[in-house]
């Protein structure tokens, strides 16, 4: 049982595009994007309804309970 308690504290939970996921503590927004949207280009990232500029993705550390929305653009005709 003690091992399970360590596991629970070794991850944090965030909402990513409406789904509850677990990620490493102190993960950056950029790390989250690389992990869950590796092929995506031209994304807009939002944390708790605030848009985060791409140049700040690496330095933006996610917190337990954050609501992250990643919005991609698709071209077409």
Structure summarized in a few sentences:
The chain is of the alpha+beta class.
Give your account of this protein's structure.
The protein is 22% helix and 31% strand. The chain is globular and about 45 Å long. The termini are far apart. The protein contains 2 helices and 5 strands, in the order αββαβββ. A 5-stranded mixed beta sheet has the order 2-1-5-3-4. The chain has a single domain (2-72), classed as Roll (Ubiquitin-like (UB roll)).
Present the secondary structure layout.
Elements: H1 2-10, E1 12-16, E2 19-23, H2 29-36, E3 43-47, E4 50-52, E5 67-72
Parallel strand pairs: 1-5
Antiparallel strand pairs: 1-2, 3-4, 3-5
- Tell me the strand percentage band: 25-35%
> For the record, what is the CATH homologous superfamily label?
Beta-grasp domain
Cα-atom radius of gyration: 14 Å
SSE class? alpha+beta
| CATH class group | Alpha Beta
Label this structure with key terms.
77 residues, Ubiquitin-like (UB roll), disordered N terminus, five-stranded mixed β-sheet, alpha+beta
């Amino acid at each position: 049982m003690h091992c399970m308690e360590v596991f629970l504290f070794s991850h944090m939970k965030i909402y990513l595009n409406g789904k509850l996921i677990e990620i490493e503590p102190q993960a950056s927004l950029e790390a989250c994007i690389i992990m869950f949207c590796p092929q995506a280009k031209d994304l807009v990232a939002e944390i708790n309804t605030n848009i985060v500029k791409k140049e700040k993705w690496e330095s933006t550390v996610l917190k337990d309970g954050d609501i992250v929305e990643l919005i991609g653009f698709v071209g077409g005709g």
